[in-house]
Specification:
six-stranded mixed beta sheet; globular; 158 residues; OB fold (Dihydrolipoamide Acetyltransferase, E2P); disordered N terminus; 45% strand; mainly beta
């Protein structure tokens, strides 16, 4: 997501917002295929720590990434609000476990700023921008950076 100060800034972005802990994040809705309630996850031996396992989604085996682990946040028990966001990422379908999905937002590019130089609590390399909403901040994630090439290859194996 490129930030610049020309007339493109007046365009609207459509985002899916979700919570992990007390923080609210957003991802481009065009990358989101679907949002599901938590289902049975089959663990895979020797998978990276952030891979919870795989699920069978209508005959397709989808690797499931725990966003808390990936963002180096403390683990939390899943509850009735836990969701799996199914994302299409570099020709791979991957599921991300989040604490809760909040809403679909349409926001103006005008309210988006570069992330602060020092971002507390999460790995700043995954943040593309911060949106200033009326009553809260929304952290926009760069999904491509969430998985390195090696990790994507591991995810493909499942």
């Amino acid at each position: 997501m490129e930030l610049n100060n020309n007339k493109e800034n007046s365009e609207l972005l459509q985002l899916v917002s979700f919570k992990i802990g007390n923080e609210e994040f957003g991802v481009d809705i065009l990358k989101v295929q679907e949002i599901n309630k938590l289902v049975q996850i089959t663990q895979v031996p020797s998978a990276p720590e952030f891979v919870d396992g795989v699920v069978n989604l209508r005959g397709r085996i989808i690797p499931i990434i725990d966003m808390r682990t990936r963002l180096q946040l403390p683990k939390k028990e899943h509850d009735k609000n836990t969701r799996i966001i199914i994302i299409e990422l570099n020709n791979n379908t991957i599921g991300f476990i989040v604490d809760a999905v909040s809403e679909v937002l349409r926001i103006s590019r005008d309210i988006i700023e570069e992330p602060p130089a020092i971002s507390k609590g999460i790995n700043a390399e995954y943040i593309t921008a911060v949106a200033k909403l009326e009553d809260r901040l929304l952290i926009l994630l760069d999904l491509e950076r969430l998985l390195t090439v090696e990790e994507e290859t591991l995810a493909e194996v499942f």
